[in-house]
Write a structure and sequence with these properties.
Family: Belongs to the glycosyl hydrolase 35 family.
Low-confidence stretches: 1-8
GO molecular function, one term: beta-galactosidase activity
Number of strands: 23
CATH topology of the largest domain: TIM Barrel
Organism: Coleophoma crateriformis
Number of domains: 2
Strand content: 25-35%
Helix content: 25-40%
Oligomer: single chain
Number of helices: 17
Keywords: Glycosidase, Hydrolase
GO cellular component, one term: beta-galactosidase complex
Mean pLDDT: 93
CATH class of the largest domain: Alpha Beta
Length: about 575
């Protein structure tokens, strides 16, 4: 393999992904980079002047990466006439404020529509025909959605995207201001399970492409469990010309897979054209579905916001868990697929989108405290590249939950990145909601074996009402554990069946230096460990209830280091 210097020369200088033991990490300027990201409102990145007022607030909120849209209509308002002047100002402004960007390519598709395509595309339905859907009463309706079965459409989109990527390479490859690109946004068809246009009707009557059938059958055992659950018969199908309904049985399932094949091929062409010009990471995001509404975390919000249980209620053809294998095959230029995660069970979706060691990136999620505390699970247990609360720019830093969470994550990023790359099975993230927010999706405790001990994480002890919490535990080796966060407590139990006692040998509050260096602050014992029973990472303002003695201390640095130990006694030791 060669020495480290030999290996380093094999990597590009621009932002890129490097494989780790169980995932990948983003490298920027030769170093691993943890995105503390947020997604802007859709129109924010269209104006450099507007963004000049956004950057200082985002820096104050400890955000280091912003996701924002670049639309096809913005850079190619007239066919073959490209204008990157405003985008250049935006990128240079971000660079001036030491802010990284993830650009969202709003080309042919944005939220299952084509509203960000240029006017010359929208009006030319002969060259760029639309998707048609059937409504109640067999009424056909035309959507403002370019049909994915149209080769001329993807060629025009791919041409524009390639121009964008070539320009970014020339402007930014030496700086790495732009880290990644999202190709399109939440693709699919809404209002019906498939396109009913003439070109789509003809394609639906044709057999499933042989290469698609062969690939999905060959890789069936390694495919997403959601694909296997929905199509248990698929591997046993005979070879030959198979219709979509023969392959996928249920009519709506067949129509959804038909659309997934069309959209993924379309986006695969666009992504490949861009990747050929500039090799930074590319991904596609997903408007999630649900099979069972009980997995949703709604808290009284209408079920419809959860995505939908039927293709067409959610965008039919998007990269949902049961279609992602088809997407990965048809769009290999995409480095990963990413879930927009608002109301689904957070951990379930993290598991779905780390299948086969795919890197996890959450491009959209809730920006409130309930949503933001969940990012600890993504970073700690699923090695997330980043998590991105949506509408981040309309929250003042002093009012945003992001500020506190990202501040602590930023100070400990070197430790987290090291564990993600080298000891991913030796770390865990978790969260606890406020007691009056607890739902069926909430956990009372998180249990995982790290090193030689089983770790149990629960809410931190108080005499009054227990509060919310979030954090991470990282095993550093030899029974030494790094604890980051607040509002939780940790208990250790030896995994050695001969052990007769497990306890805390040392525990220290840690001060965090500028570069993440840790020094000992206070030596913690007594009340802070409940006399050795467990270690408490308290909230900033513990609830003492009616108890008159202030036993639980407020959190201060929110970082501690504990060493656990166990003993194995012989009979004569009793």
């Amino acid at each position: 393999m060669g020495d480290a210097s030999d290996r380093s020369t094999a990597y590009p200088s621009h932002p890129h992904l490097r494989k780790t033991k169980t995932s990948s990490q983003l490298y920027v300027n030769g170093k691993p980079f943890m995105m503390l990201s947020g997604e802007l409102h859709n129109s924010s990145l269209s104006s450099a002047s507007f963004m000049s007022s956004v950057y200082p607030n985002m820096k104050a909120a400890n955000v280091n990466t912003l996701l924002g849209s670049v639309s096809w209509e913005m850079i190619e308002p007239v066919e073959d006439q490209f204008d990157f002047s405003e985008l250049d100002k935006v990128i240079l402004g971000a660079r001036e404020h030491d802010m990284r960007l993830v650009l969202l390519w709003f080309g042919s598709f944005k939220n299952a529509l084509s509203t960000y395509a240029p006017g010359w595309v929208k009006v030319d339905v002969k060259r760029f025909p639309r998707v048609h859907v059937k409504e109640a009463g067999d009424v056909t309706r035309t959507l403002e959605l370019v049909s994915p079965f149209n080769e001329r459409a993807w060629k025009a989109d791919a041409k524009a995207f390639a121009k964008l990527m070539k320009h970014l390479k020339e402007l930014d490859s030496e700086h790495g201001t732009v880290l990644m690109i999202q190709v399109e946004n939440e693709t699919g068809v809404l209002g019906d399970s498939r396109d009913r246009s003439k070109i789509a009707e003809k394609a639906f009557r044709e057999p499933v492409p042989k290469d698609v059938m062969q690939h999905l059958q060959k890789t069936y055992k390694e495919s997403s469990p959601y694909f296997q659950k929905r199509f248990p018969h698929f591997q046993s199908l005979t070879a030959g010309n198979v219709t979509w309904e023969q392959a996928f049985v249920d009519r709506i399932d067949a129509e959804e897979m038909f659309m997934a094949n069309a959209f993924s091929r379309y986006i695969g062409h666009v992504a490949a054209a861009g990747k050929a010009e500039y090799g930074i990471p590319l991904y596609a995001n997903v408007w999630l579905n649900f099979d069972d509404p009980s997995i949703l975390d709604l808290q009284g919000i209408p079920v419809v916001v959860g995505g939908g249980h039927k293709a067409g209620i959610y965008p039919s053809g998007g990269a949902c868990p049961h279609t992602m294998d088809l997407w990965k095959y048809n769009a290999p230029a995409l480095d990963f697929l990413s879930p927009d995660l608002y109301f689904h069970d957070y951990e379930t979706v993290c598991k779905q989108y780390t299948h086969q060691n795919q890197p996890l990136f959450i491009p959209e999620q809730r920006r409130d405290e309930r949503g933001v505390r969940r990012i600890w699970l993504a970073y700690g247990s699923y090695a997330a590249l980043g998590c991105s609360p949506f509408g981040i720019d309309s929250l003042k830093a002093e009012e945003s939950p992001v500020t506190r969470h990202y501040g602590l994550l930023n100070s400990m990023s070197s430790h987290i990145l090291d564990a993600q790359a080298n000891r991913p099975d030796e770390m865990m993230g978790f969260f606890f909601d406020e007691m009056d927010e607890v739902t069926h999706t909430s956990k009372d405790s998180w249990v995982q074996v790290l090193g030689d001990f089983e770790i149990t994480v629960e809410r931190s002890f108080v005499f009054g009402k227990p509060g919310a919490g979030a954090g991470m535990v990282i095993h550093k080796g030899n029974g030494k554990y790094l604890l980051i966060g607040w509002g939780f407590q940790v208990t250790w139990k030896s995994t050695d069946p001969k052990s007769t006692f497990t306890g805390i040998l040392y525990s220290e509050e840690k001060e965090v230096g500028k570069n993440g260096d840790l020094t000992t602050g206070r030596v913690m014992n007594g009340d802070e460990t409940r006399s050795g029973a467990f270690f408490i990472m308290p909230n900033e303002d513990p609830d003492y209830g009616s108890f008159p003695i202030a036993v639980t201390i407020p959190s201060r640095t929110m970082v501690a280091e504990c060493t656990a130990y166990s003993i194995c006694e012989e009979e004569e030791d009793y």
